[in-house]
TrEMBL record:
Its EC number is 2.7.1.148. PANTHER family: 4-DIPHOSPHOCYTIDYL-2-C-METHYL-D-ERYTHRITOL KINASE, CHLOROPLASTIC (PTHR43527). Pathway: Isoprenoid biosynthesis; isopentenyl diphosphate biosynthesis via DXP pathway; isopentenyl diphosphate from 1-deoxy-D-xylulose 5-phosphate: step 3/6. This is 4-diphosphocytidyl-2-C-methyl-D-erythritol kinase. Belongs to the GHMP kinase family. IspE subfamily. ATP binds at residues 101-111. The active site is at residues 16, 143. It comes from the Bacteria.
Length: 309
């Protein structure tokens, strides 16, 4: 007889970049109405949950120290939310193998929340429908529903209402990471400050972006990358302007601050161009770290599931 199998569920979840982020007026609830195009890339976290007598959370990987280890951790909040809705007093031990940068505008915390929802849902066999999981995800944060779904999707409302986009092909990205993070609320506040009193229209997706994705045309996609939060992120961290200029000089087809930043995403023509750009940016010490990734990829999905019955 072999050793008893450990009960554990592991879910893999991708980071995102916003190909287009159009920020509308500030709503009464403190959120801005958005029109965004989310795009999931294969820079991933693995979240494992195991039954336990008390709740705990451990993060491993290069960004572990920046991740809260208590009840504020979004993965822990996700597990507690499911426990509350199911009405159970069971606990889980959560382990996050983290590769998505923290506070980088790539929705790493939201990704972990989505992964924990899927993992705990499987572990406890709760029977929530996809619609119910989406609603739980939206309670946890505006970006959490997209991490469940993945692919390429238009987000509206505060980002939580999703419609998949017809998109052809795979795109190659290089991400310039900065160890110093930017706070999402601070970047939205800076966007409001820079806009002053000018009236802001309700945002909508651009036809240029939709056509580029439908055709899988990387040059057109590069021309249509747009982020209304970019001036605010650059105002709070001016060296982002140099990062963007360096990547474009070194041959990137397009560049954009990812979400609220400070990660800068460079779009490349193919994988070999991406590798060349990674080498140049690394050699030029342009960012604290440079990583490559491609997209779109699937949202949160189970990669390991051993459950005792
Ligand atoms: C900017 C974006 C772009 O996808 O991503 P990140 O750069 O953070 O990854 C998102 O809008 C971030 O979504 P998320 O990080 O889930 O934000 P939430 O937890 O829901 O909200 C945190 C705070 O951000 C601001 N916020 C967020 C979403 C929104 N539509 N309008 C806002 O003004 C509010 O100040 C809110 O209190
Ligand atoms: N599991 C988690 N991983 C990363 N950050 C988390 C997590 N749970 C809570 N946070 C908090 O969320 C903040 C935003 O992190 P993150 O989601 O990585 O960035 P962004 O909102 O820029 O995409 C972090 O500063 C951290 O304090």
């Amino acid at each position: 007889m072999g050793a008893p199998t450990e009960t554990a569920v592991t879910v893999r979840v991708p980071a995102k970049v916003n190909l287009e982020l159009r920020v509308g007026p500030l709503r009464d609830d403190g959120f801005h109405s958005l029109s965004t195009v989310f795009h999931a890339v294969d820079l991933v976290d693995d979240v494992t949950v195991r039954p336990a007598s008390t709740s705990s959370i451990v993060t491993t990987g290069p960004y572990a120290d920046a991740v809260p280890a208590g009840p504020d951790n979004l993965a822990m909040r996700a597990a507690r939310l499911i426990a509350e809705r199911v009405g159970t007093d069971e606990h889980v031990a959560i382990e996050i193998a983290k590769s998505i940068p923290v506070a980088g505008g790539m929705a790493g915390g939201s990704a972990d929340a989505a992964a924990a929802l899927v993992a705990v849902d499987a572990l406890w066999d709760t029977g929530f429908s996809p619609r119910e999981l989406h609603e739980l995800a939206a309670e946890l944060g505006s970006d959490v529903p997209f991490a469940l779904h993945g692919g390429t999707a238009i987000g509206s409302g505060r980002g939580e209402q999703l419609v998949p986009v017809l998109a052809k092909g795979t795109f190659e990205w290089v991400f310039a990471l900065h160890h110093e993070g930017l706070s999402t609320p601070a970047v939205y506040a800076e966007c409001d400050r820079l806009r002053g009193r000018e009236p802001v229209a309700e945002p909508e997706p651009s036809s240029g972006m939709m056509a580029a994705l439908r055709a899988g045309d990387v040059d057109a996609l590069a021309d249509n990358l747009h982020n209304d939060l970019q001036p605010a992120a650059c105002s709070l961290m001016p060296r982002l302007r140099d990062t963007i200029a360096a990547g474009l000089d070194e041959g990137a087809l397009g560049a954009i601050v990812s979400g609220s930043g400070p990660t800068v995403a460079f779009l490349c023509g193919d994988r070999s161009e991406a590798l060349n750009l990674m080498v140049s940016l690394t050699a030029g010490n342009i960012a604290d770290e440079v990583v490559g990734a491609s997209g779109p990829v699937h949202g949160a999905h189970v990669v390991h599931d051993v459950r005792r019955r």
